[in-house]
Every structure is written in C-alpha cells, then in structure tokens.
TrEMBL record:
Protein name (Swiss-Prot/TrEMBL): DNA replication terminus site-binding protein
Source superkingdom: Bacteria
Gene Ontology CC terms, in alphabetical order: cytoplasm
GO molecular function: DNA binding
Species: Pseudoalteromonas amylolytica
Pfam families referenced in this protein's UniProt entry, alphabetically: Ter (PF05472)
GO biological process, one term: DNA replication termination
Keyword Magnesium: no
C-alpha cells in the first residue's frame, strides 16, 4: 500500500537529485543555451485551445537561468492555470567528457520514474490526487513525472515542432451506452432546455445501439497542441520526444544543426489532416474498424 510517508520520501529523494543536477549543470561547460518562452496560461484560458502561440526566443546566460528554473518548476503558481501545465521547450549543449552530469541526470530520471510508479499504484484517480497533495502540497504531479530528455550521440539535427496529439480510450458498446445514459441527466448550458438536451442524447444512443453487440468503440479526443523535439540521424533513423522540458545535447558536434521553435498558428485545412466520421461528435466517439 502506498503511504503518505513513502510518497514524501520518494519526492524528497527526487527533489534532492534534481537540486544537485541543477547546481552541477550551472557549473558545467555549457556551449550553447536556447530557451523558447511560451505565454503563461491563465485560469480563464485553460478550457480553450489556443489558435496561435507566440514564442519568445532567449539565448545565452539568461536562457541557462530559465532552463534551470524550468527543471525546478514543480509547484502550482496560483496566478496561472493548474489544469494546463506550462511547457518549457529549449535546448542546452554541454561538454561532459567524463559523464558526471549524465550520471546525475540518470539518477534524476530514475527518481522521477520511481515516483510515478509509486503514485500509479493508487488505482483511483481521486484517491491518487488526495494522496499526492496531502504528502506534497501544491505539487504539479505531472511535472514531477516529466523526464528530462537528452542525447549523447551525434545527430544530424535537433529541431522543434508543434504536435497535436489525441487522448485515446477504447470501450465496449455497453460502456458507451452507459456513458450516454448518465450524461442525459446532466445539464448542458449550450442547449435551450433540458428536454432538448435529453432528446439529443437519445439520438446518440440510437446510433450506438444500431451497432453489433461486439463492436469496438474508441474515444479519440484531441488534446492541446504541444512542442516536440525531433532528433534526426539519417532520413530513416530519427525520433521525437516531448519538449515539455529543455532538451540536453551532451558533447555536441559543431556540425549538428540546431533548429528553433516557431510561432504556432492553427491550420484548419492541413493537407495531412484526417477526416473523422464520429458516431457522437461531442465526445469524439468513433467505431474501430
């Protein structure tokens, strides 16, 4: 059983390793620092996905300070959103020939992973939230989980892009009908009256009910756009990771091409955009073929 003491103890270990890492990073041989500052997300903006995001590029010593602050950004600022966690894209190139800082980073990421595993042992979301915030008040749980990504090889390029992902959940026909039945009792401010709302839900239930008993369904909900790091070695060998925290390039090669994060602007008619035919548009419910 996960106890308050075990959560606090693991967090204290995580925080200690992170503090040591940040101290050692500032004393290391830093070749280049770039931080891409994103706007703070105010509470009144947290329910609305942005159509544009302006990026402020910061370089040099100021960028290093902001990168260190980003790694330490674990607690809620009550002036900004607590639901949408701030992203901190950036890149810092560091000479670390003996691998000391790499070893410290490994310890940090291991402590983060163990903290995450400890929290996820609690099965219920509400119980998990209560346990974490009782043990570590004001902690942004996902910020504690976030891995600090790095590369030790020599890539051809490290660039940034914006990525729109989807939160996916599969469910049975029965589970979907149960969800719709429960939602018919909710009030919906967009509808003229409760009767109209219930009529809409009944139409949704009829569409789902028309499917075969063994039909597989999926909720594929788009999430807020987020920055990513694209690391390329060759046309075939490449990977991408989250840019929620600044990326570290160890022992950089002078010919590795480093890119910037451009401003984001939503494009409705993107050539690669897939058209979806949802069974229930408002909850992004679709049939899995």
């Amino acid at each position: 059983m996960t106890s308050k003491f075990s959560i606090r103890s693991q967090f204290d270990l995580l925080h200690e390793q992170l503090s040591l890492f940040c101290e050692e990073l500032q004393q290391s041989d830093i070749i280049k620092s770039t931080y891409f500052e994103l706007p703070k997300i105010e509470k009144e903006q947290e329910e609305k996905a942005p159509l544009t995001i302006e990026v402020n590029k910061v370089s040099g010593q100021e960028a290093t300070k902001m990168i260190v602050s980003a790694y330490k950004d674990l607690f809620i600022d009550h002036k900004v959103s607590g639901k949408v966690v701030q992203r901190h894209p950036g890149i810092i190139s560091i000479n670390d020939p003996k691998g000391n800082l790499q070893a410290r980073l490994k310890a940090v990421n291991e402590a983060k992973q163990k903290f995450k595993e400890l929290i996820l042992e609690i099965p219920n979301n509400d119980a998990r939230f209560d346990a974490v915030h009782s043990a570590v008040p004001s902690l942004i749980t996902i910020a504690g989980y976030r891995k600090i990504h790095s590369e030790t090889a020599i890539p051809y390029s490290v660039r940034f892009t914006w990525m729109t992902k989807h939160a996916t959940r599969t469910l049975s026909k029965e589970a979907a009908l149960d969800m719709l039945s429960r939602s018919s009792n909710y009030s919906n401010p967009r509808m003229i009256d409760q009767q109209s709302w219930q009529s809409l839900v009944e139409q949704e239930k009829i569409r789902v009910n028309s499917l075969g008993a063994n039909s597989k369904l999926r909720i594929r909900r788009p999430t807020r756009v987020s920055p990513e790091v694209n690391v390329r070695f060759t046309a075939q060998k490449r990977y991408h990771v989250s840019a929620a925290l600044p990326f570290i390039l160890f022992n950089p090669h002078p010919e590795t091409k480093l890119g910037d994060l451009s401003n984001y602007e939503k494009v409705d008619n993107h050539p690669r955009k897939r058209a979806y035919n949802f069974l229930v548009d408002r909850i992004y419910l679709e049939k899995v073929d």
